[in-house]
Amino acid sequence: MTTPATEYSLAELMICANASAYDNDGEVLVTGIGVLPRIAASLAMLSSNTDIMMTDSEAWLLSEPNPVGKRDADFQPKAETWMGFTRIFDNVWSGRRHLTGGPTQIDRFAQANISALGGDHSKPKVQMLGVRGFPGNSICHANSYLVPMHSKRVFVEGECDVVCTIGYNPDRLPKGYSFDEIDVRQVYTNLGVFDFRGPNRQMQIVSLHPGVTVEEVQENTGFPVHVPASIPTTPAPTEEQLDIIRRIDPHNLRAKQLKDNPPGVRG
Amino acid sequence: MNKEMALQELVGELRDGMTIGIGGWGPRRKPMALIREILKSDLKDLTIVAYGGADVGMLCAAGKVKKVVFAFVSLDFIPLEPYFRQARQNGEIEVMEIDEGMMLLGLRAAAWGCPYIPSRLGLGTDVVNLNPDIKLVDSPYDEKEWLAMPALKLDAALLHVDRADRRGVCQIKGPDVYMDEWMARAADKTIVSCEELVDTEYFAQGDEARYVFWERTMTSAVIPVAGGAHPTSCTPEYGFDVPHFQEYNASAKEGGFEAYFDKYIKGRSEAEYQQAVGGIDAIRQLPLPVY
Description:
The complex is a heterodimer.
Chain A: H1 10-19, E1 29-32, H2 35-46, E2 54-55, E3 60-62, E4 79-82, H3 85-94, E5 97-101, E6 105-106, E7 112-113, E8 116-120, E9 123-127, H4 134-140, E10 142-147, E11 184-189, E12 192-195, E13 204-208, H5 214-219, H6 239-248
Parallel strand pairs in A: 1-5, 5-10, 10-11
Antiparallel strand pairs in A: 2-3, 3-4, 6-7, 8-9, 11-12, 12-13
Helix pairs in contact in A: 1-2, 2-6
Chain B: E1 19-22, H1 32-39, E2 46-50, H2 54-61, E3 65-70, H3 82-89, E4 94-97, H4 100-112, E5 116-119, H5 126-129, E6 135-138, E7 145-150, E8 154-164, E9 170-171, H6 180-186, E10 187-197, E11 221-224, H7 242-251, H8 256-264, H9 270-276, H10 280-284
């Protein structure tokens, strides 16, 4: 039996929403980049999809996820396979992977940016990470995104300053490809859960977190969001999920990921 | 064949305008002692191919770089490399910005003697638009277009390993080889610094030979430099130097690279560098990172 929790943080709500991304993935490599996505992937592996494969974020595949943050000196990770970067690429290219990342920009075509902002590519206003593995990830396997602060700075009006991922822009579709091959799965923000399965692959609301309104979402998004006829509230974490989260994150790093660590149900 | 070389001989092996691959990944197992030799030299106009960290940042800050081939330049726990960032934002360097996996394919193409490897990676993104040199090709086997990742042929590869013998047999005990093997195979000459110079017999013990990932034909020169990856990590020997990286990062805001360079590198031998950062024993004590 599961018991819905009555008290939980917004970070914990987002973790549980993100964990549900992997429910029907079967046996794939799951990567959560950043604290909340990593806890979410670990939660999924310990509850809703025990077939998931996860790494230690260094070079080993684990049969049980490592807790995040500092661990006891005698902690023994449960490694099962060597998984250096070349082998990560083998998994990426096989398509059997689902990643949740945290881009700086997402546009109406579901394209994402982590590379640079503004200016010209020869002289960007703000150099960020570079495209990293995002281009390859986006054309090879499923990708979800977690956005801690839903705003027009993230969900931009035009295209991303640097388009790091293939999305659903008809002008960029390579010859011979179909958008059915591109799998942008879900987006988890502090306001709700979204996907790109609205009319003509428009971003749409999947659920809203407790107390969040459609207007608030639209005001903070740089492009029109599709509003379905009925919008559920994002399900509360269960007590069982919160127990697992506390084990995965014993130092409560999740409390430091969102400004002021707001509660899941607005006061 | 004895491939042992002195650190001071490195620069004589390199030329202005060369394309140089640098092993390691972000703040992990970078051949930093070799980089410091280049920083002290007159070399210029280099094209750098790397999974970049402070190696790329320092070379850019010192004006050694014409072009960087990169997917990221990062110190991991400090996500943005401060001097690479400055060089980009000042428009000082040319770039070829590509996907992490594309770089591996480019190195493999060079290693295998292919002009390119067809791939899906990068299609539909700005990687195609921003790199007019990267062509799309039709396949003889299907109706799709493919990105033809060109060979990334290296004039030289610079790598840091745990152990090597004088013949160029190199051992890496850390959990990841990164792309070092492919850098070695893609390069005309591969110059390796090592924590420890060992006799050939060492590799015959137990399973030591299993930690050798390329053959000695791929290694041109071996330079023994214990602690030579500092301030990056050389797992399992030592972790990265967090306070040192923090100071390096802060120098970009105050003082600039020149202040960092003057304090630690300018006019100093590697032994003097190590003294300035606390000594080889302190380097060996640096805690391994927890991921």
